Structures are given as structure tokens and as C-alpha cells.
Amino acid sequence: MPSYKNVTSSRQTLGGKVVEPGKVVCTTSYHNENDVKLLRVDDAPYFNPILFSEIITSKGAIEVPKKNNQGEYVTRYAIHFYLEKGEVEILYNSVKNKPALKLYSGCRWNLRCFERTIDQIIIESNQSFILWVIMEKI
């Protein structure tokens, strides 16, 4: 999410935003500096869709982050599971929320949430396991 400065003496448009002379605008994407008459002044804040990325080896609960690394509230997100070894049961928000999602060694599962429907992921297992969990803003 780079920042651009209007170094010209006239208004410029960047990504649908009007940038007055001398002003800086933060965008969500990079622009070809040959096509726009603005100077890129900073690459920060950096875009990063990853909210959480961990290898889990013990049962317990994971909180779904409410904000991304730019401090924006996240309503749409995807959760990716890859079970490298073992067997696990995944429950959403409560241990009472049955049936559980059952994953077996080598299994992958992706879940897209278009509303804020999950605040907690509960991982249950009676054996050793290696579970990769990645959450990303969509």
C-alpha cells in the first residue's frame, strides 16, 4: 500500500482518488510511475493479507484476529488447514458445535467466511499431530 505525492502544480487522479498539488495519498496497489504524474514517497504501509500463520502441535483454541496489520477491522477472511500428521477435529466457536470437521493425515481444508462468523477455532485430538493453520483477509 504505497504512498504517492503530487509533485505537480495541478490536480492528479490516482486509483479514483483526487490528489491535490503537494498532497500525499496512500493507495492499495502500486501504479506505473510512467503512467501517473505522482512521485512514490514510501512503500509503507505494506500490504499483507496474512492474519495468522502457525504450525499447531497441541490441542487448544485459536482466536481469529479481529484486525489486520494495518489496524483495519476484518470481516471477510479465509482459513486454511493442512494436517501433516495425525488426526484432529476442528470445531468453530464452541466445543458444542457438532459435528466437528475431521481431518486426517495429508488432508487439506479451506473455509471462506464472507461475514464475521468465527471468532475461535477449537482443535481436539487424542494423538500427536502437526496442523498448519493460515488465516488471510479476503
Helix and strand arrangement:
Layout: E1 3-5, E2 12-14, E3 17-19, E4 24-26, E5 39-42, E6 50-56, E7 60-63, E8 77-85, E9 87-92, E10 101-104, E11 108-113, E12 120-124, E13 130-137
Antiparallel strand pairs: 1-4, 1-5, 2-3, 6-13, 7-12, 8-11, 8-13, 9-10, 9-12
Descriptive report:
By secondary structure, the protein is mainly β. The protein has two domains: 3-42, no CATH class; 50-137, Jelly Rolls (Sandwich), CATH 2.60.120. 0% of the residues lie in helices and 47% in strands. It contains no helices and 13 strands. A four-stranded antiparallel sheet has the order 6-13-8-11, with no helix packed on it. A hairpin with a 2-residue loop joins β2 (12-14) and β3 (17-19). It is elongated and about 70 Å long.
The total of beta strands comes to: 13
CATH architecture of the largest domain: Sandwich
Portion in helices: under 10%
- The CATH class of the largest domain, by name, is Mainly Beta
Q: How many structural domains in the coordinates? A: 2
Structural class: mainly beta
Which percent band covers the strand fraction?
over 45%
Unreliable residue stretches: none
The H-level CATH homologous superfamily of the largest domain, spelled out, is: Jelly Rolls
Order of helices and strands: EEEEEEEEEEEEE
Mean pLDDT: 92
The Rg value, from CA coordinates, equals 21 Å
Could you give the order of strands across the largest sheet?
Answer: 6-13-8-11
Q: CA-to-CA gap between the ends?
A: 16 Å
What name is given to the CATH topology of the largest domain? Jelly Rolls
Overall 3D shape: elongated
Number of contiguous helices: 0
Main β-sheet: number of strands, strand sense, barrel status?
Answer: 4 strands, antiparallel
